[in-house]
Amino acid sequence: MSNDLKVKGPIEIQDNSAERVAYDLMMLISNNENPAYDDHCAAKKASKRLYYLNLYKECLNVVKHSEVPASDSSK
To answer: Which of 14, 29, 53, 71 is deepest in the core (most CB within 10 A)?
Structure first.
């Protein structure tokens, strides 16, 4: 797998795109689940990154496919 990312042309973020709606949903959920997530521990930062990536993936799946996860992945 390559770590190279090449973008040709401008990137447009539309307010009504599935990706933008998923991002807004992710932020809404994460702000309610983690209102004061303020820890300087490297392990917690790494798990926080994974938390956001997984949450965004779930939100995008819900927005694009109307598939609600069978269980709460935050537990």
So the answer is: 29
Specify the residue for token string 């598939």: 67
What would the two tokens of residue 40 be? 């300087």
pTM: 0.63
Q: Tell me the two tokens of residue 23.
A: 């991002």
Token look-up 């490297």 returns: 42
Rounded alpha-carbon distances, angstroms, from residue 7 to 3, 16, 19, 39: 13, 22, 17, 34
Q: pLDDT averaged over consecutive 10-residue blocks of the chain (75 residues)?
A: 66 80 90 66 71 89 82 65
